[in-house]
């Protein structure tokens, strides 16, 4: 498995994946974005008090198994404390291109990607502690030196990074926030994309994947209308599933539930 530096349609080798861009159905209605009760609950109401931003995640408290608990100690060197300033400097080879993954879950696919691409550096950001522990366990066991992880809100981390310092930003199977009143928590939004665009290098990629059709349509509607981004597969199209993106846990769950999978690759212009 390698990571291409050219668009993945030129790298396709696995015939089970579509070779052509995928045409999506009609675009959904945009959310009303005016749910005052929810805004107050989220802390977003403009009421003169401190303004808390809307989070894209909910922290869950789940116990760690024995190897995960031990991994947090044994592989502590792979875990970076916030705040950080230039993520590139965390690595033995700061000159290598930086991939940032937001919400890596249990981290298996991130570890496989880092293992397959020693010529790149990988920073994974997650708030789910058992996932962080599992990820460093697998990265540590594999002896990876090009992967670091953080327990933090990725949006806060991004704010601190130098502009143009990220080569690839990946967001795989983000929480779809299915209820209309929660659409404001979706990561892909006109509110959050300016930060992503600011931190991506020119020519860098934002790569998102989802198994939730409404979110796929939503993502395309947002991303195709960002002047700073170009759809690598052409306006209105999803990307063929890249064979260098390992299956994630949530992707597998989506398959089991009979869902489709949509990848989107956008280049910062
Ligand atoms: C539905 S899970 C998908 C996990 C994994 N990518 C997969 O496909 O199996 C989404 C993950 O994103 C994380 N997440 C959501 N927003 C985040 C943020 N702003 N910063 C860090 N992690 C975030 C959540 O904690 C959750 O583990």
UniProtKB/TrEMBL annotation:
Chain spans, region Disordered: 1-63
Which controlled-vocabulary keywords does the entry list?
Answer: Methyltransferase, S-adenosyl-L-methionine, Transferase, tRNA processing
What does UniProt give as GO cellular component?
tRNA methyltransferase complex
What EC number(s) does its UniProt record assign? 2.1.1.33
Bias (Low complexity) occurs at 1-23
Q: Is tRNA processing there in the keyword field?
A: yes
Residues binding S-adenosyl-L-methionine are 101, 126, 153, 175
Keyword Secreted annotated: no
PROSITE patterns given for it? Answer: SAM_MT_TRMB
Q: In which pathway does it act?
A: tRNA modification; N(7)-methylguanine-tRNA biosynthesis
Q: Name one Pfam family in it.
A: Methyltransf_4
Sorted alphabetically, which InterPro entries does this protein's record hold? SAM-dependent_MTases_sf, tRNA_(Gua-N-7)_MeTrfase_Trmb, tRNA_methyltr_TrmB_bact
Q: Which GO terms describe its molecular function?
A: tRNA (guanine(46)-N7)-methyltransferase activity
User: At which positions is substrate bound?
Assistant: 179, 211, 248-251
Similarity comment: family membership: Belongs to the class I-like SAM-binding methyltransferase superfamily. TrmB family.
Q: Which NCBIfam families match?
A: tRNA (guanosine(46)-N7)-methyltransferase TrmB (TIGR00091)
Q: Which HAMAP family match?
A: tRNA_methyltr_TrmB
Name of the protein in question:
tRNA (guanine-N(7)-)-methyltransferase
């Amino acid at each position: 498995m390698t990571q291409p530096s050219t668009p993945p349609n030129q790298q396709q080798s696995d015939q089970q994946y579509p070779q052509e861009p995928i045409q999506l159905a009609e675009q959904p209605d945009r959310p009303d974005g005016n749910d005052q009760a929810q805004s107050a609950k989220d802390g977003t109401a403009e009421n003169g008090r401190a303004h808390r931003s809307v989070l894209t995640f909910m922290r869950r408290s789940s116990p760690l198994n024995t190897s995960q608990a031990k991994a947090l100690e044994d592989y502590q060197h792979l875990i970076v404390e916030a705040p950080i300033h230039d993520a590139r400097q965390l690595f033995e080879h700061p000159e290598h291109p930086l991939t940032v993954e937001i919400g890596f879950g249990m981290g298996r696919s991130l570890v496989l990607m880092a293992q397959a691409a020693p010529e790149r550096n990988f920073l994974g950001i997650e708030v789910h502690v058992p996932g962080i522990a599992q990820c460093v366990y697998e990265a540590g066991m594999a002896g990876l030196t090009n992967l670091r992880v953080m327990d933090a809100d990725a949006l806060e981390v991004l704010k601190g990074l130098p502009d143009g310092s990220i080569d690839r930003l990946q967001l795989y199977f983000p929480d779809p926030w299915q209820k209309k009143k929660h659409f404001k928590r979706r990561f892909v939004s006109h509110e959050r994309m300016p930060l992503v665009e600011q931190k991506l290098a020119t020519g860098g990629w934002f790569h998102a994947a989802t198994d939730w059709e409404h979110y796929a349509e939503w993502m395309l509607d947002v991303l195709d209308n960002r002047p700073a981004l170009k759809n690598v597969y052409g306006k209105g199209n999803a990307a063929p599933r890249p064979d260098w993106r390992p299956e994630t846990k949530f992707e597998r769950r989506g398959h089991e539930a009979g869902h489709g999978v949509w990848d989107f690759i956008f280049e910062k212009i």
